[in-house]
Amino acid sequence: MFLKNYSQILIIGAGPAGATASMFLTKQKIYHTLIDKAVFPRDKICGDALSGKVFSVLKKLENGIQNKIYSDENYLGSFGVKFFAPSGLSVDVPFANNIESLSVAPGFIATRKYFDNFLLENSAGEYANVIQGCEAKQITKQPDGKYKISCIGNGLTIEFVPEIVLAADGDRSIFAKQFGGKMVEENHYCAGLRVYYKNVSGFNSNNFIELHFIKKVLPGYFWVFPMSNGKANVGIGLLKKYASKNKINLRKELEDIIQNHPEISKRFSAAEPLETPKGWGLPLGSKRRKISGERFMLLGDAGSLIDPFTGEGIANAMICGMHAANVIELALEKKDYSSDLFYEYDKRVYNRLGKEFSISTTLQKLSRFPWLFNFVVKKAIKNETFRETLTAMFNDLDLRSSFKDPKFYWRIFKN
Ligand SMILES: Cc1cc2nc3c(=O)[nH]c(=O)nc-3n(C[C@H](O)[C@H](O)[C@H](O)COP(=O)(O)OP(=O)(O)OC[C@H]3O[C@@H](n4cnc5c(N)ncnc54)[C@H](O)[C@@H]3O)c2cc1C
């Protein structure tokens, strides 16, 4: 039984990481405060694609939450990914080998304005003191080891001195910069742009999301994701190191692809942008970092935990939220807020995501080579068993790790 004390735990940021931590704390009947500088529903620049990993976290809360998503028309179910090699050839990789027999889609696309608000609504309740429009502005560490967080909300200053801080305030986290050593590392950081469009044509009938690996923006990609209301989420992302080294202007590349790419431009002939391209960074998990310390844990983008190949970060942020809440239960029970105790969080997060990050880092490096990409896609088009293996790789990490083994490519070469 935990004390009815909302101020013992402060979560800064109510995106997928913070809201999920809040939902799990509520499940454990642990009182806490969740603040966000924005008032929801709010936009977040993103590709808006949610994978099955999101559902694996939600399922642990209550089945009802997941069912709400399945029955909501704001979510567009997606059954797979279409990979376009630099040659222009494409291969469809369904999320499961039997998609015809599935009753619900394994993945979804939903605007973050909608999805994040949905999570926040589910995190509100007896155990959560949710304060929107409240920005953490200044943080100091006190002699007793606690953090004093001064926030501004509605023109008022509010001060928190919690026992434990969860920094879930995204890529520009002030807590992670000040106390978690967070900085932009060009080798482990991607620049991304998003534009919503309407009337893009030519989508797959099972709403496959599309990743186009175009020579000029390797090892990044251009994406087109179908959405529920006839709109599309369109964007481009590239490792900062390559954007800087090759002086690539992503806005120009995005425009050039949409207007001049021989195949893509045809699909945009009747399309209209609904906004100007909007940019935001993707801090990648291609380097293992320490994501906790005495009295704090860094969640989601604040801990730089985005998949280095796919750019998926929502589910990873939610996985962090779940583990952080579980480790808090441990800390409160033991009344131990030391960095040793919170290192348990690092272990749990990297146990779950470390292998994926390692494979994705290899894939990201290999995707610099257009010939290799062309070769793999060409083989996949010709060979059904190989396509089925690619699908199985979504769910089987051991199989996916074959991408790191040169023998795998030799076997493809030899059929
Ligand atoms: C262009 C682009 C495309 C992407 N596409 C995808 C995709 O298709 N699928 C996918 O899974 N991932 C994608 N990602 C990654 C994904 O957006 C992030 O990994 C995810 O949003 C991380 O969630 P989070 O909760 O850690 O942070 P955020 O979602 O950024 O939430 C942080 C919250 O903290 C609040 N906040 C910030 N500072 C303060 C403060 N000082 N005080 C109080 N509150 C504060 C913010 O208002 C915000 O609500 C993409 C990212 C980009 C940039």
- CATH A-level architecture of the largest domain: 3-Layer(bba) Sandwich
Q: Give me the count of strands.
A: 20
Overall pLDDT confidence:
92
Largest sheet: 8 strands, mixed
* Euclidean distance between termini CA atoms: 60 Å
Relevant CATH superfamily of the largest domain = FAD/NAD(P)-binding domain
Search tags:
6-stranded mixed sheet, globular, alpha+beta, 8-stranded mixed sheet, 20 strands, FAD/NAD(P)-binding domain, 3 domains, 415 residues, D-Amino Acid Oxidase, Chain A, domain 2, binds flavin-adenine dinucleotide
Topology of this protein?
Layout: E1 9-12, H1 16-27, E2 32-36, E3 49-50, H2 52-58, H3 63-70, E4 76-78, E5 80-84, E6 90-94, E7 107-109, H4 112-123, E8 128-132, E9 134-141, E10 147-153, E11 156-160, E12 164-167, H5 174-179, E13 189-198, E14 209-212, E15 221-226, E16 231-239, H6 240-245, H7 250-260, H8 264-267, E17 272-273, E18 278-283, E19 292-293, E20 296-298, H9 314-334, H10 339-366, H11 370-382, H12 384-395, H13 397-400, H14 406-413
Parallel strand pairs: 1-2, 1-12, 2-8, 5-14, 12-20
Antiparallel strand pairs: 3-7, 4-7, 5-6, 9-10, 10-11, 13-16, 13-17, 13-18, 14-15, 15-16, 19-20
Helix pairs in contact: 1-4, 1-9, 2-9, 9-10, 11-12
The structure holds flavin-adenine dinucleotide (FAD).
Written overview of the protein:
Helix content is 37%, strand content 24%. It is globular, with a radius of gyration of 22 Å. The protein folds into 3 domains: 187 residues, FAD/NAD(P)-binding domain; 142 residues, D-Amino Acid Oxidase, Chain A, domain 2 (2-Layer Sandwich), CATH 3.30.9.10; 41 residues, no CATH class. The mean pLDDT is 92. It has 14 helices and 20 strands. Helix 9 packs antiparallel against helix 10 and helix 11 crosses helix 12. The chain is an alpha+beta fold.
